[in-house]
Amino acid sequence: MKKKKKINVKIYAVLAVFFTILTLSLSGCAKKKEPPINAGSKINVKAFKIKYYVIPDYLESPGNTYSLNNTAISAHIMGYIVLENVHQGQAVSKGQLLLKISAPEIGSKYYAAKAGFVNAKKTYDRIKRLYKENSVSKQMYDNTLMQYNVAKANLNEAENYLNYKTIYSPINGIITKKSVSMGDLVAPGQMLLMIQSPKNLEFKTSVNVKYFNKIKNSKGLKLNFSSINKSVNGKVITVVRSANPYSHSVLVRIAVNNSEKSELMPGMYGIAKFKIGKIKAVIIPKTAIVRRLGITGVYAVDKTGEVMFQPVKKRGVYKKHFIIISNGLKPGMSVIINGFDKIKTGSRVSLSFN
């Protein structure tokens, strides 16, 4: 019996030690699994407080530039092109030789007309002298004078046709179209070249008829050309008082200020910005705009300081450094304008406002 009691005591002692060790090991594991206490401070960033601003309202309308000096050169005689001195896109000066047309019959008619004129003039001079001496009748004198005038008219016509063989530029400009080449046969009335001057341009655009009263008295406006990253001033010449029955729009003609000093060319695409009043809008700095997975938005901050990504819809640019927001933001919200590399959705931040 005593031996059994001793054995039981030893077993209990071993079990006690085992459970003590097990308890300590489990408690150690439990401590390892506990997350560390995050005592870190919030991220400091600059922010912009959203509110409504009263700003000018603009109507943007696309269009193109056109040259007011637009010259089409056509053939007046039939013949072959024997001199091709220009190419499309070339700048030409007034009086510069452009083309020559070979037309032998024109030269023959000229020389025949000149011979007829010389003969008629000699006859007229002789009859005129005799008439003064009362040696010929008044009827003969009149007939001779008529023949002289006809011969002179025929010579002038032949000279004009002779001049049509050589074609010179009537203006300073750019050759925008060339429809003939060396050796081509041309006929009277056929268009040969198109020359446009970049020094006197106008901009044409179509505007919805509902804005007619707001733009008809427009004075100054901006014309933006993204292809050359440039804006120029313009002035409304006229708003045509006839609406297109299909597009319900009216044509607006705009003079381009100092077009000869700009880089503009005929046919360039641009956007006209008409000031049509004022609106109440949300604007934010350009630096607040970010893109995530192809979506344009901002990092907005709620009342607890937590960051969230908010998609927005842009309407346009205001004073170069601000963006007009048409959807996605409301007054009272705050958006982050810097420190994007330190934050992400769910981050907690401390805001400072300029």
Commentary on this structure:
This protein is α+β, with helices and mostly antiparallel strands and 354 residues long. It is 26% helix and 40% strand. It contains 4 helices and 22 strands. The protein has helices at residues 2-33, 104-132, 138-163, 212-215, and strands at 43-49, 52-67, 70-74, 79-84, 91-92, 97-102, 166-168, 173-178, 185-186, 191-196, 201-208, 220-225, 230-239, 249-256, 269-285, 290-292, 295-301, 307-311, 313-318, 322-327, 334-336, 349-353. It is elongated, with a radius of gyration of 45 Å.
What would you call the shape? Answer: elongated
Fraction of residues in helices?
Answer: 25-40%
CATH superfamily of the largest domain: RNA polymerase II/Efflux pump adaptor protein, barrel-sandwich hybrid domain
What share of the residues does DSSP label as strand, in percent?
35-45%
Number of helices: 4
Sheet having the most strands? 6 strands, mixed
Distance between the termini: 90 Å
- Total count of strands: 22
CATH class of the largest domain: Mainly Beta
Query: Roughly what is the average pLDDT, rounded to an integer?
Result: 84
Q: What fold name stands as the CATH topology of the largest domain?
A: OB fold (Dihydrolipoamide Acetyltransferase, E2P)
Q: Helix and strand succession?
A: HEEEEEEHHEEEEEHEEEEEEEEEEE
Classification by helices and strands: alpha+beta
* The number of domains: 3
As a whole number of angstroms, the C-alpha radius of gyration is: 45 Å
CATH second-level architecture of the largest domain: Beta Barrel
